[in-house]
Amino acid sequence: MIEEFGNNKLSGGLNVFQFVAYLIATSLYAAGFAECIGVLIGSSLPSLGNKAIGAGVVILFALVNIVSSKLVGRAESAIVAIETVILIALLCADASKADFSRLTQEGSSQGLGLITGATLLYVTYQGIGLVTTASGNMANPKRELPRAMYSALIIVAIIYVLVSTLVITVLPLSEIEANAGHVLANLGQAVAGQVGFVVVAGAAILATASAVNATVFAASNIGFDVAEKKEISHFLTKVVWRNGSVSLLVSAACVVLLVIFFPLSAVGQMTSLAFLIVYGAVSWGHLRVRSKTGAKRWPLIAATVINALLFIALLVDAITSGEPMTWITLIVLLILSFVFEAIFRDHEAKHSTNGVSEKPSSKSHD
364 near 239, Cβ under 8 Å? Predict the structure, then answer.
């Protein structure tokens, strides 16, 4: 953000809020992991059990991050490989049962509902942004980063289209609506009975675990970077043990608190709203410096406008749905990010004037 908006309170506040957005996203995946565990065992877990499982998976992957950043990558590769095999098998098995005439059936449609659904789906693509947080761990970021982002976007888009098409063409709409939280597991059951249900539910557990792993890593890196730029306390850059920075510990603790105090539906909307703000700001900022990057104007303008419109649509839905905790908390966190940044910068400026300075530290990597 500094390169786009300059080293000021605006860029600092946006960076702090981006850190908060990744913390919210991690709590979403942790809560989803707990929900998937409940689906697999065939009964709804008590609220306390859900929260304990969600908090536990965050702590587990925080420890993985502490042990080794390379272990994070290896764990991701293993999980993604297993998920991919399961999805390919599911696609092949379901293709024979698909009734493609359902794609042309008429039904009621609501424009606002379609837009709201798109905004909630938006968060599933925020993983593209996670790739950039790992650039410091790449041997050749200039070459590897674009390849990783474009290949991930293409692969994810193809898988989403294929899987969602099979869901619609295999399962009745009534069943999809009734089992929205675990519709893929029902798709597996339609093909291979209880074995298919268990396998696909297991894949969902792996997917949410993978997301927790990746976003804990990303959030801690963003917190470290923001602290290193002295937009929040430089103390977050201190290394506790091996690869574990204070930023990682603080990130994990904040995520655990979010898991404990917010339900899955709330953090889902909060995450989508937060990333619509973050990526809208990134597109707007890129527009300001496009002469340096060589980017075309129209895609950046389109991205900024689309993010703004989707944010407004989802915010209206959140306000009218009768769940004020979601949007009020998000707006409060956004405001507090800028308030905190303003107070912190003023405090740092006074210390600098008085001749007080901090000795910078660097983050260790495996």
Answer: yes
User: Which of 208, 183, 188 is closest to 199 using CA atoms?
Assistant: 188
**The token pair that represents 14 in the structure block:** 């946006």
pLDDT of 301-311, one tens digit each? 998 998 898 88
Place 107 in a pLDDT band, splitting at 50, 70 and 90: low
Q: What's 43-69 look like in SS3?
A: CCCCHHHHHHHHHHHHHHHHHHHHHCH
- Structure token pair of residue 83: 């998920």
Answer yes or no: are the C-beta atoms of 65 and 216 closer than 8 Å.
yes
For 322: left if phi > 0, alpha if psi spans -120 to 50, otherwise beta; the answer is: left
Count other C-beta atoms under 10 Å from residue 49's C-beta.
13
- Fold type of domain 7-98+113-261: Amino acid/polyamine transporter I (1.20.1740)
Q: What is the pLDDT of residues 317-343, one digit of tens each?
A: 888 876 788 888 899 999 999 998 888
For residue 25, what are the contacts with CB-CB under 8 A and spacing of at least 6?
123, 126, 215, 219, 271, 274, 275
pTM above threshold 0.85: no
Beta strand spans in the chain (E): 239-241, 244-245
Which residue would you say has higher pLDDT here, 109 or 83? 83
* Domain spans in the chain, listed from the N-terminal domain onward: 7-98+113-261
Mean pLDDT of the chain: 79
